[in-house]
Amino acid sequence: MSILDFRDQEALGRVQSVDTANVIVRVDDIESLRALQVNRLVALQSSLAGHKLIGVIHKITRTALEQAKVADLERAEEALPEVNLVRIALIGTLIDRDGLRSNVFRRTLETVPEIDACCFALEGERLTRFMGVISEVTAGSQRLSLGCYTLDPNAEAYVNGNKLFQRHALVVGSTGSGKSWTTARLLEQVAELTSANAIVFDMHGEYRSMAGNGFVHLRVAGPADIEAGKGLSDGVLHLPYWLMSYEALISMFVDRTDQNAPNQAMLMSRAIVDAKTAFLTAEGHKDVLANFTIDSPVPFALDNVLAELNRLNTEMVPGARTEKQGDFHGKLSRLIQRFEGKRTDRRLGFLFPSAGVADSYGWLEEVVNLLLGSRAAKHGHGGVKVVDFSEVPSDILPLIVGMVGRMVFHVQQWSAQGARHPVALFCDEAHLYIPQDASSGAAENAIAIFERIAKEGRKYGVGLVVISQRPAEVNRTVVSQCNNLIAMRLTNGDDQAVVRRLLPDSLGGFGDLLPVLDTGEALVVGDAILLPTRIRIAKPLNEPLSGTIEFWDRWADSKTAAALDKAVESWRRQTLTN
Q1: Of 148, 144, 114, the residue nearest 131 (C-alpha)
Q2: Are 472 and 498 within 8 A, CB to CB?
Q3: Which ranges constitute the DSSP H helices of 15-160?
Q4: CA proximity to 350, closest of 152, 102, 574, 554
Q5: CB of 216 within 8 A of CB of 374?
């Protein structure tokens, strides 16, 4: 039996014109018109028996001329002074019976309504039954609960977990809109799965509060961690220089404005290949020695590279009568200075760990097992790995996050077809390291890596969840590959424009909701959700540490005192760790 058993006399109006997925309905009863609301659902008669078309009201117009006649039906919407119209965007079809199943909703339009077909308001008990169908259909093994529908608070809103991560997702919202709250809600449900596998790039330590057996917290090593000799067993992560690609090394150590930059890059690459060859020879890895490249993740001694560069920079060669300067004499000085400067920078200690910390052949396997081992894997530690990048200097942040992203992608790429275990990357504050406009070599490197993940990641089981308060500042290629959108309140016009471009044409009017969404309320559209609509996100068990400070309350509290002396000392020591 159909859950939408309307009678013709209940119709609020009849179809006036049809244009692809948009329908214009004429409403003659003014009281019915007054009762309608924009963004509410309606049902329309279909030309197929047992089918009803579901639509969203986008525009309502009431005029004083109730009996006006419209000569040109195709221009009915433009004739606003002459007719009462409701513009509706069709979003799917409710089928009374599909095989053995009854009341099935599909995001397809197998037909469009005929002229003069009846249109009915979907409200009250009928709305409750319809939302129940939506929840039941999406509540399969792939279900992931976000909260409840704004249309019906009693109907739980689910998204399809497979499609959400397979086809990438974009979570956006202005500061204080509930973006981190939504992310935490997703992470908690991921962490509950037996073989969960996700990595969170945490820029400000917001997700330190996420707790449970499914979570592992890691921190990129800061100066205090290095002084204390902390390592992986302490949850402290080193990311040694030898993990970087050739392009990343060039962007970090070679000044492109130097007229000798091409020679410096060439000689540095030659010295690095020689150093890696020496390491593999000494370790006896003949199989790797025959096929490795400069980008292969093979440890090498930085001292050997510097020694070779210094030799070339001071080289004297035999001349016609006496010795003369070599071809590269004095041309590598700035490169060597940059090497020395970076290596002695205490903030970059995680890149240049002391001997024995991250320079062995087996170290990479240990780190990969930690980051990519699922909760149920042999070496697995937890389903969700939260990596805190808060102590990484901002100027090289894109380079370091890109290094981790590259490592994940290549491990998945080089895994056997049937042995790949999918992993999702949650890119918090993505505009910081996947910017639209690259202002440095570090940013260019990160953009190239994440663009490749966005375009090819699905083939290798790598999903992206891009999270940002400024979608207009996130790389457009990456954003365009996100086929699922969770948009919280956005007040900036440029950011709203980005989201509107991602909406289907039939749902373009949803973009007008962006500045008026409530805190914790989201507009959810995409492959993963059956009914594109507004959803009120449920509260996570452990709220993220968003850092929002109640200004007025703190100013009014006479007992509040700032520990400025400790802040100054932390600034000097370049660490927040006591």
Answers
A1: 148
A2: yes
A3: 30-35, 124-138
A4: 574
A5: no
Nearest partner of 454 among 432, 479, 474, judged by Cα: 479
Secondary structure element (H or E) that encloses residue 409, with its range: helix 397-413
Per-residue confidence (pLDDT) for residue 87, from 0 to 100: 92
Between CA 68 and CA 291 the distance in angstroms is 80
Cβ(20)–Cβ(90) below 8 Å: no
Cα distance between residue 153 and residue 128, in whole Å = 9
Q: What are the φ/ψ torsions at residue 506 (nearest 5 degrees)? A: -70, -20
Q: How far apart, in whole angstroms, are the C-alpha atoms of residue 280 and residue 85? A: 76
Which residues contact residue 18 at a Cβ distance below 8 angstroms, ignoring those fewer than 6 apart? 24, 112, 113, 115
Task: Say yes or no: do domains 8-122 and 138-239+359-548+561-578 share a fold.
Answer: no
pLDDT in tens, 15-58: 999 988 889 999 988 888 888 888 889 999 998 888 999 999 98
d(C-alpha 344, C-alpha 342), whole Å: 6
* The domain made up of 8-122 is a member of CATH 2.40.30: yes
Cα 164 from chain centre: 11
**Spatial separation of the C-alpha atoms in residues 231 and 503, rounded to whole Å:** 45
Residue ranges covered by each domain of the chain: 8-122, 138-239+359-548+561-578, 241-349
Whose CA is closest to 86, among 30, 125, 126, 129? 30
Q: How far apart are CA 240 and CA 234, in angstroms?
A: 17
The answer on pLDDT for 71 being more than 50 is no
Give the homologous superfamily in CATH for domain 138-239+359-548+561-578.
P-loop containing nucleotide triphosphate hydrolases (3.40.50.300)
Contacts of 377 (CB under 8 A, 6+ apart): 195, 369, 421
Q: From CA 63, how far away is CA 564, in angstroms rounded?
A: 64
pLDDT at residue 574 is higher than 90: no
* 429-448 residue pLDDT tens: 999 999 998 888 889 999 99
Helix (H, G, I), strand (E, B), or coil: what is residue 15? strand
| 8 Å CB contact between 474 and 490 | no
Q: Could you give the CA distance from residue 469 to residue 180 in angstroms, rounded to a whole number? A: 10
SS3 (DSSP) at 547: coil
Distance CA 143, CA 123 (A): 26
Please give the Cα distance from 468 to 25 (Å, whole number): 39
Per DSSP, which regions of 236-328 are E strands?
A: 236-237, 316-318, 323-325
| 1 has a pLDDT exceeding 80 | no
**Structure token pair of residue 104:** 């099935």
Report d(CA 288, CA 297) in Å as an integer.
Answer: 11
